[in-house]
Design a protein that fits this description.
Spore Coat Polysaccharide Biosynthesis Protein SpsA, Chain A; Serine Threonine Protein Phosphatase 5, Tetratricopeptide repeat; 316 residues; alpha/beta; 21% strand; 11 strands; 11-stranded mixed sheet; 12 helices
């Protein structure tokens, strides 16, 4: 049996579609665990009435609030041998779970399976992350592959550190033992990436070669928000890289990837500060970035900031 964990917070208008994509489109035995993360829209009681008699459980999150705490609550409550993650505004494509079960049966070494996603906005399919997914997937270290799946080599851990998170959380299905290593609840953004990186150290990953979910882009997608703040998601990503840097027995190359990614995050944050004309903060961030890498790029950026101070019309 597969336990499908769906965290929700005030998503009463959206979650029905997610649940239907499990109940109506998956030809496998499954239970749905909806984790209510403190909603105020009555979604918990509505779910109990709407899905009475169906394999849908509604539990309240008693762990840390936020995506990681809610998902962990569902994972710990799961009764299945496998755990699938599904956000309340996403939809499984037909037979997604069956394809994952076939993969686990065919490749006993595999403990985590993911796939690609179809992205839609206003009912129209859009590129969004699709091209990046294909490019990143094609470069990944692969041990076995056939027409429907590729199984990654143990070096996938290093590759994830280098490439960043390139697949969608709602495509992931795990053996329950891997799932119960749990997400880091101190992170509210990047919690999924840190989880995949940590799992990939000791668990083999595989990827299905066809889209597994439909992802609808809207204003409330965390990954689709256009933040008005120069900091954007940077502090959370930096916290995730700090956690990764504390993993035991990291190799030289792995440490270098973490430092390079940290430098990139700080540089991007500094660039956004420059665009918002927060020059003192930009200088501070460029100097921080320089300690981890991108020395030439940071020096050039600092020179530009000094020119802006001397010649305001130089601003661009």
């Amino acid at each position: 049996m597969i336990s499908v964990v769906i965290p929700t917070y005030n998503r009463r208008s959206l979650i029905g579609g997610a649940i239907s994509s499990v109940l109506d489109g998956q030809k496998v035995e499954c239970e749905i665990i909806v984790v209510d993360d403190g909603s105020t829209d009555g979604v918990g009681n509505w779910l109990l009435d709407e899905y009475a008699g169906l394999p849908v459980r509604v539990i309240a999150n008693t762990r840390n609030k936020g995506p990681a705490g809610a998902r962990n609550a569902g994972i710990l409550a799961a009764k299945g041998e496998f755990v699938a993650l599904l956000d309340s505004d996403d939809r499984f494509l037909p037979e997604h779970l069956a394809a994952c079960l076939r993969t686990f049966a065919a490749f006993p070494v595999v403990e985590v399976v993911f796939g690609s996603a179809l992205y839609e906005q206003n009912g129209v399919t859009v590129e969004y992350m699709g091209p990046n997914f294909v490019r990143t997937l094609d470069r990944a270290p692969t041990a076995q592959r056939n027409e429907s799946i590729r199984v990654f080599a143990p070096e996938f851990f290093q590759y994830l550190l280098q490439s960043g998170c390139f697949f969608n959380l709602s495509t992931v299905v795990m053996r329950v033992g891997a799932a119960r290593e749990l997400m880091n609840e101190t992170l509210r953004i990047g919690e999924d990436y840190e989880f995949w990186v940590r799992l990939s150290r000791n668990h083999r990953f595989a990827c299905l070669n066809r889209p597994q979910i439909r992802y609808v882009l809207h204003d409330n997608n965390v990954s689709f928000e256009n933040s008005a703040s120069p900091s954007d998601c940077a502090p959370d990503l930096l916290a995730a890289y700090e956690i990764m840097s504390s993993y035991p027995a990291l190799g030289r190359k792995e440490k270098r990837y973490i430092k390079e990614n940290t430098a990139d995050v700080l540089f991007s944050w500094a660039y956004r500060c420059r665009k918002h004309r927060q020059l003192r903060e930009a200088i501070r961030l460029h100097l921080r970035s320089m300690r981890f890498g991108k020395r030439l790029e940071n020096v050039v950026a600092l020179i530009k900031i000094s020119l802006v101070g001397l010649f305001p019309r130089f601003w661009s």
